[in-house]
Amino acid sequence: MNVLIIFAHPERNSLNGALLDIARNELEASGHTVQVSDLYAMKWKTDIDRKDFPSFPADERLKVASASAESFSSHTLTPDVEAEQKKLLWADTVILQFPLWWFSMPAILKGWVDRVYSCGFTYGVGEHSDKRWGDRYGEGTMAGKRAMLIVTAGGWPEHYSSRGINGPIDDILFPITHGILFYPGFTVLPSFVAYRVDRLNEQEFSILSDKFKERIQTLATTSPIPYRNQNDGDYTIPTMLLKSGLEKAGTSGFELHLKAEPHL
């Protein structure tokens, strides 16, 4: 299996760095091939602007989606973006690893998504008609590949529970797991989240490491998050509203987009 890890932490000598080393060692020991994009070490450009589209006419108003589509189709994207796209096509499994900062990913990782997810590559693909609305949400360029998040948080697990003040961690990560990963077709695995990371002692780190190794060793067999595919009949087209009666009783919000368990 080919595994790509997008690593977004400014300090390599950190808990995130230790988890990255564990992941790579476990995967390579099992015979897998690993590539790592260490965004801070790469000094990744975070903002998307005219410099990302060298062939775009200087006197035209920049429309990012159309400029992105034209540059992608004409193979005139910048070399750093093209290199990351090749890595994504190479990978069987993609891992985004980052600390949870202000309820989201670090800006450098969002900048990686903004620049690498070109129109025609991860969005704006497929037929748009009264029967389909593009190849997305379960279909698309990344279909058949697995993906997951490795996230570190300073707060307690209780803070991110269903009644916790920060809100459920799965809801916080939904724009990433469902939007950034499931949208272009990835099969998304449950996230691995480490809590209270600034307060871990050696014994707690040992316990965390064992749990983490187990998750890494089971990347190929872990059951994915059961998101609903867009074009499988659960949504009306083109409004993309979930059809009534498909959800479990009492379900609302992001949970609506999880497949209901079959009635026994």
From TrEMBL:
PANTHER family: NAD P H OXIDOREDUCTASE-RELATED, NAD(P)H DEHYDROGENASE [QUINONE] 1 ISOFORM 1
The keyword Cell division belongs to this UniProt entry's keyword annotation: no
UniProtKB keywords: Oxidoreductase
Name under which the protein is recorded: NAD(P)H dehydrogenase
One GO MF term attached to the UniProt entry: NAD(P)H dehydrogenase (quinone) activity
GO cellular component, one term: cytosol
Organism field: Acetobacter syzygii
Residues covered by the Flavodoxin-like fold domain: 1-204
Family: Belongs to the NAD(P)H dehydrogenase (quinone) family.
